[in-house]
Amino acid sequence: MGFQVSVQPSRHTFHAEPEETILEAALRQGLSLPYGCRDGVCGSCRGKVLSGELAHGKAQLEVLSEADRQAGFALFCCAMARSDLCLESREVRSIEDIPIRTLPARVHKLTRAAPDVIIIDLKLPANERLQFLAGQYVDILLKEGRRRSFSLANAPHADDFLQLHVRQVPGGQFTGQVFDTMKERDLLRLRGPYGSFFMREDAGKPMLLVAGGTGFAPIKAIVEHAIAEECTRPMHIYWGGRCRADLYLLALAESWSVQHPHIDFTPVLSDSPEAEHWPGRRGLVHAVAMADHPRLADYQAYVCGSPAMVTAARQDFLTHCQLPPEEFFADSFDFSADTLEAMSAKRALHAPNTSGSSDTRVTPDE
């Protein structure tokens, strides 16, 4: 048994169980209410109860004054529903709604997903959380002002850990550390979130999602966010690699299409050796997507990978498939050896607008 919660002025609704906080329930179902710490300390999740009853968490006694409580205010990261509720709260729908923060993070887990890919799960301090939109990225802060950019591979509702997918780059300062010396409980500093590559939730169009290599990370976040939000827009996912090992979470991606009828998934290899006996599609991943979807006039396209792949996809989708320019969203990973970073490191951020958007960033990730 649970309770129905409605949010004003958006009129969005979600279901809350008796023993979960209002914020937990909203995030679990893909609704982004504002928050900072999820521990009743920062006050970012403060909102008003217009009708209904809730149980105040102990932390609220310190952060909210008695006058605030009498006026109907609550901290949604601590409060739990005790009846159907009507709340007044803003919602996080664009990058302008989210503050950029610098936080420490501890390495919780290192998983060798492929010979040249490690998945890092980072744990923030107990009283901190990073709010972000699915598909955005963070900078890892290094010595001498250097930074490394990595997409967040987890959906916003699953923020107990921040997940990064790191591909090894020869000569890379940070990737060398990840693959050679990094261990669990090591401490890092990160800053973010950044980027305009995220799902436009106000559109009802089918989505074409194309990833190359570890460009799968933000695509994974977007798909898992859409699933949590119970979004039923058709999603056609293409993930390309050179060989089978490059599709390092293939079973996960395949499970999406098995469990959700509106999701299709197609893996593509461009240089698979005969010994692998690959039974699937071959070629350039965006070309395979074009072959299946020769007309994209009614679609949105989300493309993440190398600059060459992103550039080719944009040109071909717009020229040959009639994709509207404003419906092309991209995150392009650019690479730089450490010896060249001082000359070439840059990040071009384009805020979301009606003409589409793209992020370009120098990173050792692929």
From TrEMBL:
Gene3D superfamilies: 3.10.20.30, Nucleotide-binding domain of ferredoxin-NADP reductase (FNR) module, Translation factors. SUPFAM superfamilies: 2Fe-2S ferredoxin-like, Ferredoxin reductase-like, C-terminal NADP-linked domain, Riboflavin synthase domain-like. Its cofactor is [2Fe-2S] cluster; FAD. It comes from the Bacteria. The keyword Iron-sulfur applies. Keywords: 2Fe-2S, Iron, Iron-sulfur, Metal-binding. InterPro entries: 2Fe-2S_ferredoxin-like_sf, 2Fe-2S_ferredoxin-type, 2Fe2S_fd_BS, Beta-grasp_dom_sf, Cbr1-like_FAD-bd_dom, FAD-bd_FR_type, Flavoprot_Pyr_Nucl_cyt_Rdtase, FNR_nucleotide-bd. Residues 352-366 have a biased composition (Polar residues). The keyword ATP-binding does not apply. It comes from Candidatus Accumulibacter contiguus. This is CDP-6-deoxy-delta-3,4-glucoseen reductase. Residues 347-366 are annotated as: Disordered. CDD domains: fer2, flavin_oxioreductase.
